[in-house]
């Protein structure tokens, strides 16, 4: 089988639609496709989709259903139609959480994309200690987010934290990292980046490996500088990878919760309270408003879903253009 | 469908029979750039490592040492009291065993069903494919925190509560895994599969003999992520495992935070304990993992 | 291959049936108290621990098991996640038989009427203040107060001595002015970062409100009771103390909306006075590297502290209701409660134990200081603490106080916001 892989005709990495080959073969075979080929895809997706259905999709639909009910304590339900949504949209806390979520997500996605591509480019060079650096940057990814929040919160503490002890020792003052809303948001974004960027570096590194080296050889023959190679070859060809990074970090950004909870608890004064925490507090802190929490979850889901679809369609158009 | 991170030229590279690192700015590199590269990498490495090292060092400190201002960089002695004090109060071996069973079991299941599903979505043209893919994409966005009451109800109805199966099965169908694998599989040339069919290979055989070996790198990625996710999982095991005999490590460790008066030196020691196994696994495997992924190319 | 496909088809069909079978309406259909009872003598006890109470509880469970032949499975969960877990289990129709709770409000409709099984042993045996809280709409006994907590100051005796400041007299409580003045003197003499620290908790702040002569709710616990003038004075004092560095402002702002204790500041000897409660006694007995003592609560308009506590309850979903009630009765018998109180430095909730008093083997003087404050605490404080809307209002007060400390709102605005939240929480709790 591997021999077959070697002799397979090379696919050109030009702007062909990647699905074209498949579509061709599908078309050719449609009329004579044997039953086992028609059935196979369903059997392949079945086990995964079954678990999906039971533990993700059905509960998600159920969640939407709950958002239309008033839940006395999470178990006695009265149908109230859209009033959970109405009430939520009139709450200033909701809008504050929504605003903070957008700020956080935009900064997080931008920084994650830029930093992960930048670092991956550095790590993709022939340098000494490459394996060491890769390991180091990936290390935070394996640490539990709850622990990450605890440790950073303790380092950023104003009076006794490590950072301010160092800054104070150097005569640079002791900013209230977690006391000032703007600084706290910056800290939360920084810690998010610290925690997740290794994951994205890995994805970009893999993407970089996929770029055919003949492009660079040709470019060098034409006398292109390193910068020109980066701008004209690497970045454009990396676009599909970039899109994966953007989509996944967007989702990551909108879901940020556990490490923020242990880092700032959403404070100071709600300055880092994001949507998931807002939902969590409604669902599990007294007074329990499970219906309201479900409504907020639906809104969050729709927002992220819409963004993802827009991103996806935009990229698809760009690619096929 | 061109949602593809993975376009490119496996074939082209393979025909030349050599694998090479593609690198930016190859050739005559100015030394100033080199120096800057190292400066950036070393500087950032310190930022990344500092909190971890600091936490490990401090986990040996006593409560009064921790409260010192300014903090001393090194503990006065390697006192293991925090560790022995914290660990002696529970059955570490049991929780470790549960964690290992759950992590290994869930990861195996995840890899098998995710790979199958991704293959179905990537390489077949069937009615409902686009809908299913959109559903996968959509479900990436649903954090468990938001829907776990309905999920719990489902688990309870199926009798999965308070068993390790309940920790293994429900989170196994990770949409992120399917998404990554599908993106990767799109790059496997259809001609390979067509040729195998002509040779008379069955559909399942094509999957196990051609697609799986060619997707090794992507499968490796999903494997590591699954291990990490399941190992660090907290909320779900917390709700599902009710008897202490079913606790995983993170849940057992969280009991230290449960007390109204939890001493921070213990919490630090426990954080280090929870980090250690997965960091060690990663350090042992990292050569294979990182190089494997990058050189085989998750494009 | 074929049989694999057939079995898959069966699985799909089974899954589809499951999906259809689970009804469209959210939630499960837990119906009243008619849960089918099981014959086995097995109980699950959902528990969170403050530390030393765990061993005492295990000892008592052993005793109960020997006496009745039952098997009790103690399930300890982190306090932070107790409510969450219980919500999930109740919604999955999978409740524990007995639970230890700090707030029964979210679960009122799920709780078992203990009078059905143990009226003689439990009804009317506990302190009066909690009665309206633990009594259901038609007179059911929904829970039993299993231990009482009393908020109060703890002081660093070494630091007081070094500063030459006399210790407060437990029998003649000091005033807020005295306490602040003394604490500042000790702070100056010992160069500590703060003079007074309070846990980030609406419950702890309620102590100050009560001392300033007002509470979240009135003496029935069912109407808002916050007096704008008195409460504003308290919030203003609190804000000033934080702004001047007498109290650690950062602590409140850095905690967000989660509970944060100031015990580390006290243990690090960075504050001579720590406003917390009796549950710190056994922990400090172990961890403090200096001499410390419980001090009387400061008086302003009124004296005394603020009560709190834990409850034991069973659920209508329980399949072992009779045994669960028996277990609760056993754990809260005079002998059991006395053992728990002694081993864990808890305060008793039984009328007979309160009147006979408990002699503590460890830190008895400190416990007596708290017990003295129990007697000085006004009835409205109990009514407020045991109001069904207390939890939500206390959470809101933490948020509002943080706003004042951050300079985002004035004390008066904060008091109005807390009052409005109290009103809303009462409505929600109906």
From TrEMBL, chain B:
It comes from the Bacteria. It comes from Streptomyces oryzae. Residues 96-285 form the ABC transmembrane type-1 domain. Keywords: Cell membrane, Membrane, Transmembrane, Transmembrane helix, Transport. Pfam families: BPD_transp_1 (PF00528). PANTHER family: ABC TRANSPORTER PERMEASE PROTEIN MG189-RELATED (PTHR43744:SF12), ABC TRANSPORTER PERMEASE PROTEIN MG189-RELATED-RELATED (PTHR43744). InterPro entries: MetI-like, MetI-like_sf. Its main location: membrane. This is Carbohydrate ABC transporter permease. It is a multi-pass membrane protein. It is found in: Cell membrane. Residues 1-26 are annotated as: Disordered. Gene3D superfamilies: MetI-like (1.10.3720.10). Belongs to the binding-protein-dependent transport system permease family. The chain crosses the membrane at residues 35-57, 100-119, 131-152, 164-185, 206-229, 266-285.
TrEMBL record, chain C:
PANTHER family: ARABINOSE-BINDING PROTEIN-RELATED (PTHR43649), DIACETYLCHITOBIOSE BINDING PROTEIN DASA (PTHR43649:SF12). Residues 1-21 form the signal peptide. This is Sugar ABC transporter substrate-binding protein. Pfam families: SBP_bac_1 (PF01547). It comes from Streptomyces oryzae. The keyword Signal applies. PROSITE patterns: PROKAR_LIPOPROTEIN. Keywords: Signal.
